[in-house]
C-alpha cells in the first residue's frame, strides 16, 4: 500500500539523517538542521527511492536524503521574516522562532551544502560520473534556473501591478515546486544511467498537479478553519490556480494532470505502481 511505502521511505530518511547529524558537534545550528529535516511527508525521498527501484536499485538513500535536505533548506528560508514570515512549519515553531534568524539562515545554508555533500559522497554511487551528474542537475534544479527562480518570480509577483496569468503561474511553479520534484523522479534513472524522459514527463505533470492541489488545500483548509473561501496567497491579492480556474476547474485540471503523469509511466509497466500511487496521493492528500 502506498501509505506503507511512504512510511518506509520516511523511516529510512529519519534514520539516515540521525546518522549524518550524529557526526557533527552539538551546536544550535546542528540541532536546527535536525529539527528542520524532521517530519514532512517525504514525498521527494519516496520519488527518488521508487524511481531507483524501477531501475533495479534498492539503495538510493543518499540522493533521497539530499533532496529532503535541500527541500528543508528552502522551507527554513521561505519561513524567514524577510520572505513568508511564518511562525509554524509542520505544526511546530519555525526555525527562526525556535532559535533566531541568524541560526535559521545558517541552518538553511548548511542544509543546502549538505545536499551536495550527500550526492557527491562515494556512498551515493561508485561511479564519480554518476555522482557528478546528480550534483550538476541538483544544482540546476535548486538554483537560479529552478527553485530559486520560482521563488524570485513569486516575490516579484507580490509587488506587480497585475495578478499573474495562468501561463505565468505555471512558469513560476515549474521552478518553485516543480524543479525539485522533477529531480527526485529522475534520480533513479540517473543512478542507473538510463533514459530520464518518461520520468521527466511524469514529474512535469505531477509537479503541477501538486501545486494545484496545494492551492486547493489552501482554500479548503481556510474554509474549514474560518468558514470562508480564501487562501493565504489569494488573501494577499496574488493569483492562484484556484483564483484563475475556480475550485472545480482547478480540481479537474489536477485530476487530468495526474492521469497524464500515470500515462507517462507506461514504458515501465507494473514496476511503476509505486509512482502511480504517489501521483494519485498528491491530489487526495489533506496536508
Ligand atoms: C527560499 C529559495 C527558496 C525557495 C522556497 C519551496 C518553496 C520555495 C517555498 C515553500 C512555500 C510553499 C508552501 C510552496 C508550495 C508547495 C510546497 C513546496 C509545499 C511544501 O512541500 P510539502 O507539502 O512539505 O512536500 P512537507 O512538509 O510534507 O515536506
From TrEMBL:
UniProt feature coiled coil, ranges: none
Superkingdom in the source lineage: Bacteria
Gene3D superfamilies: Farnesyl Diphosphate Synthase
Record-listed E.C. numbers: 2.5.1.29
GO biological process, one term: carotenoid biosynthetic process
Keywords linked to the UniProt accession: Carotenoid biosynthesis, Chlorophyll biosynthesis, Isoprene biosynthesis, Magnesium, Metal-binding, Photosynthesis, Transferase
Reactions catalysed, as given in the entry: isopentenyl diphosphate + (2E,6E)-farnesyl diphosphate = (2E,6E,10E)-geranylgeranyl diphosphate + diphosphate
Stated family: Belongs to the FPP/GGPP synthase family.
Name of this protein: Geranylgeranyl diphosphate synthase
Source taxonomy: Bacteria, Pseudomonadati, Pseudomonadota, Alphaproteobacteria, Rhodobacterales
Amino acid at each position: 500500500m502506498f501509505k506503507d511505502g511512504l512510511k518506509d521511505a520516511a523511516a529510512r530518511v529519519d534514520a539516515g539523517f540521525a546518522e549524518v547529524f550524529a557526526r557533527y558537534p552539538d551546536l544550535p545550528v546542528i540541532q536546527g538542521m535536525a529539527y528542520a529535516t524532521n517530519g514532512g511527508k517525504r514525498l521527494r525521498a519516496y520519488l527518488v527511492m521508487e524511481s531507483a527501484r524501477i531501475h533495479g536499485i534498492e539503495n538510493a538513500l543518499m540522493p533521497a536524503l539530499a533532496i529532503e535536505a535541500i527541500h528543508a533548506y528552502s522551507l527554513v528560508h521561505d519561513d524567514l521574516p524577510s520572505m513568508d514570515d511564518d511562525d509554524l512549519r509542520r505544526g511546530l515553531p519555525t526555525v527562526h522562532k525556535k532559535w533566531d534568524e541568524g541560526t535559521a539562515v545558517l541552518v538553511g545554508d548548511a542544509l543546502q551544502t549538505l545536499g551536495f555533500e550527500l550526492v557527491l559522497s562515494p556512498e551515493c554511487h561508485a561511479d564519480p560520473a554518476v555522482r557528478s551528474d546528480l550534483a550538476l542537475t541538483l544544482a540546476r534544479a535548486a538554483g537560479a534556473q529552478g527553485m530559486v527562480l520560482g521563488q524570485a518570480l513569486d516575490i516579484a509577483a507580490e509587488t506587480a501591478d497585475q495578478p499573474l496569468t495562468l501561463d505565468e503561474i505555471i512558469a513560476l511553479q515549474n521552478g518553485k515546486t516543480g524543479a525539485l520534484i522533477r529531480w527526485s523522479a529522475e534520480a533513479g534513472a540517473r543512478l542507473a544511467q538510463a533514459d530520464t524522459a518518461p520520468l521527466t514527463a511524469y514529474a512535469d505533470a505531477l509537479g503541477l498537479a501538486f501545486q494545484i492541489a496545494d492551492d486547493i488545500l489552501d482554500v479548503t483548509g481556510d474554509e474549514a478553519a474560518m468558514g470562508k473561501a480564501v487562501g493565504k496567497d489569494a488573501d494577499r491579492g496574488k493569483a492562484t490556480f484556484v483564483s484563475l480556474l475556480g475550485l472545480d476547474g482547478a480540481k479537474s485540471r489536477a485530476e487530468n494532470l495526474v492521469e497524464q503523469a500515470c500515462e507517462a509511466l507506461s514504458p515501465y509497466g507494473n514496476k511503476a505502481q509505486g509512482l502511480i500511487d504517489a501521483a494519485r496521493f498528491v491530489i487526495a492528500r489533506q496536508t
